[in-house]
Amino acid sequence: ATMPILPRQSKFRNVFGHEAKKDLCYDNIQVAQGGTDSSNIKVSTKFLAVPIKGGGAPILVQPLDRTGRVESGPPTLTGHGGDIMDINFSPFADHVLASTASDATVRVWSFPDGIATSMKEASVVFEGHSKKTTNVQWHPVASDILVSTSIDYTVRLWDVNAKEEVTCIEEHAGMVHCLEWNATGTILATTCHDKKARLIDMRAGNVANSFQPHEGLKAAKVTFAGNTDKIISTGFSKTMERQVGLWDVRSLDKPIQLTSIDQASGVLTPYYDEDLSLLYIAGRGDTTVRFYEIDGTAPHIHYLNAFVGKFPQRGIAVMPKRTLDASRNEIFKIVRLGTNNAEPVSFEVPRKAGSFQNDLYPDTYAGEAALTAQEWRGGSNAEPKKVAIQETGLGTVSAGASIASSEGVSKRRATEVAPAKSPIVPVTATSPVAQAGSPLNRTKELESKVQQLEQENASLKERVAELEKQLKEKDTIPEEETDA
Asked: Which residues of the chain are under the pLDDT cut of 50?
């Protein structure tokens, strides 16, 4: 099945993406070559991190509010003995970054006050892998738990606080392409060059289940659809069509939905917004970020629109949702990395100004640990802590309710992927948002609508071009490509 060109009725059908003004972007970044797919840039609520060219495998760490031209020879993290492969900020500490590299190590860096001068000494260095380390990922609920993979085909779990290896999984028959935890951190999903996706219980040290999300040889990626029993996958068909799939973890013999996107070579990565059940898909080398709504009605993956940028992206970083600007109805924000620049892109819902849009801002991921590493290693589970997004800013953080076991996580119906409702937050008559219905704001609203229509027009033109290309190539089956 191919994607419908026109979206169905949805409160998100007019969502549009727009890039930041030039003075709010980042320029003169000497972006390093290589790295794993989509891993060239990461952000926390305070910093942006990008591996850059230079001796010592430097990682640029730039305060987000320091926009404009990056200074020549900036202070960096320079401890690795080979090219940087992946980086990831801790979800619980804006100033803690994990990195992997071709020197086979995993390093954890800490810079509470930023980086005034280059740092060569990491806080922790893990040396368990025998070959180049590739992906690295933090646990979403427990502090100081880190997982990494390598071209030695192993997946290793580390306790950063104890500075020790906890588990090593040796079940993969090829290079691992992605590592993704479920919402409560009880299961780790991986994809592999052998075309299999695996669901791993890292504490038990075994593979609980596996399935083949896509038939193509190029890399597939997966992510969990929030705190539900669903998995979203992106990958390739045998004829090199790029695809997106939706799966039920309780029935992995066939997908709920498997849909073709286009015919292109860039590896796609899915980014899921569990608060609003929206899916964003971006490919390395693409100029486009497509977005979809996931729900319980066929075909389940509903195309909404696409942002079309001015340059191909080397990577995408997703901003934590607690940094969004609710006064603009901003619902998602990314930073796109180019060959020497980084550009924030905001996705907004065009609505009449004048009140806080409560339905767009349910409680979101708080960025606070619900468990210690020791508690999680001992068998405890907990829901992620959530924080209320209110008109006046962030509200109270939830306690992160304990759950008996992984069996207790979200027993929703197989077709349901729905966000939680948040309590209504009153809007005061004196607030800037409540007073926003002025002629000036009406003009801004109309300008926003024009920009959104231009985005939709560009998206439709791109889709028509893709379909015309597919028609021309319908009698030709491209040769399958393999990973570099």
From this structure: 7, 405-442, 477-484
Alpha-carbon torsion (434, 324, 363, 444), positive or negative = positive
Contact yes or no for 237/215 (Cβ under 8 A): yes
Burial class (CB in 10 A: 0-12, 13-18, 19+), 423: exposed
Residue 150 CA: distances (Å) to CA of 124, 268, 295, 374: 18, 20, 35, 25
Beta strands 93-101 and 106-110: pairing type? antiparallel
pLDDT of 173-229, one tens digit each?
A: 999 999 999 999 999 999 999 999 999 999 999 999 999 999 999 999 999 999 999
Q: Which strand (E) or helix (H) includes residue 453?
A: helix 439-472
Strand order in the sheet with 93-101: 84-90, 93-101, 106-110, 124-126
> What's the DSSP call for residue 55?
T
Q: Nearest-CA neighbor of 157 among 188, 184, 198?
A: 188
Q: Is the CB of residue 104 less than 8 Å from the CB of residue 132?
A: yes
Comparing C-alpha atoms, which of 272, 266, 319, 311 is closest to residue 47? 319
- C-alpha closest to that of 86 among 147, 163, 45: 147
Q: How far apart are CA 137 and CA 149, in angstroms?
A: 9
Helical residues (DSSP H) of 100-239, grouped into ranges: none
Name beta bridge partners: 281: 270, 290
- The continuous run of DSSP H or E covering 395 comes out as strand 393-397
What are the start-end ranges of the E strands in 214-337? 221-224, 230-236, 241-248, 257-263, 268-273, 278-283, 288-294, 301-308, 315-318, 330-337
What letter does residue 2 receive in the DSSP assignment? B
Is there a cis peptide before residue 299, judged by omega within 30 degrees of 0? yes
Can you read off the two tokens belonging to residue 68?
């404009």
**Angle, alpha carbons 301-302-306 (nearest 5°):** 115
**Quick check: 16 and 455 in contact, CB under 8 A?**
yes
**Could you report the per-residue pLDDT of 11-70, keeping only the tens digit for each?**
999 999 999 999 999 999 999 987 666 568 999 999 999 999 998 999 999 999 999 999
* C-alpha closest to that of 176 among 195, 163, 202, 200: 195
Identify the pLDDT of residue 402: 73
Strand spans (E) along 33-92: 42-43, 47-51, 59-63, 68-69, 76-77, 84-90
Q: Are 320 and 44 in contact (CB under 8 A)?
A: yes
Q: Nearest Cα to 208, choosing from 235, 169, 238?
A: 169
At 463, is the secondary structure helix, strand, or coil?
A: helix
Amino acid 474: pLDDT:
63
Angle (CA) 403-409-415 rounded to 5° is 160
- The pTM for the full model equals 0.82
Could you tell me the two tokens for 324?
Answer: 């969004």
Cα separation, 100 vs 42, in Å, equals 13
